[in-house]
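Mods, move this if it's the wrong board.
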Amino acid sequence: MTTTGVDGFALLDEIWREVTPEAARRMLIAAVRAFAEKGYHATTTRDIASLAGMSPAAVYIHYRSKEELLFNISLVGHETSLALLAGIEGGDVVERLKNAVSAFAGWHAEFHTTARVVQYELSALSPEHHEKVAELRRQIEQRMRSYLEDGVEAGVFDVPDVKGATLAVLSLCIDVARWYQPGGKRTPDEIGALYADLVLRMVRPAT
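Not the wrong board. Structure tokens:
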């Protein structure tokens, strides 16, 4: 993993580099920073434009509203984390779950600023936009649940309530974005490894 990008407030973050034109990308990155620092409702379009080094009117050239900025951030954030989980590889059910939890928790540390906005400002989305993001969240949940179900079917995991366990695992990983700060005792990779170990301890049969 890297430690540059939106969460270091640079422009060429791997999550946002495909957003074009550059002015739209700058505006989106500025919105991530503003929403994470002040919260969605306390942030104005003037705040976002100022962080982007642009005029307030420039916001509306690329985005119809502050809410549309939030929607784009939420959409890209969820699509990125879903792709991360969908690309998990491993030789067996234990390794796949380990890799999934490590990657998901590590992502929420590495991109904590983006993740904080993505995970904790959902209520500000319009009903239409909220439903689109909710569908991605259901796919993320299903993907993580599949790794647990594979282990249960193989007789390796002891999980009486797979749905409940899935929500617990996802919540554990997502909460990293709330408290993580760069320069702490653990790197994102180390946090991912720690959480993967904790989850495996949770789902394996007691001996």
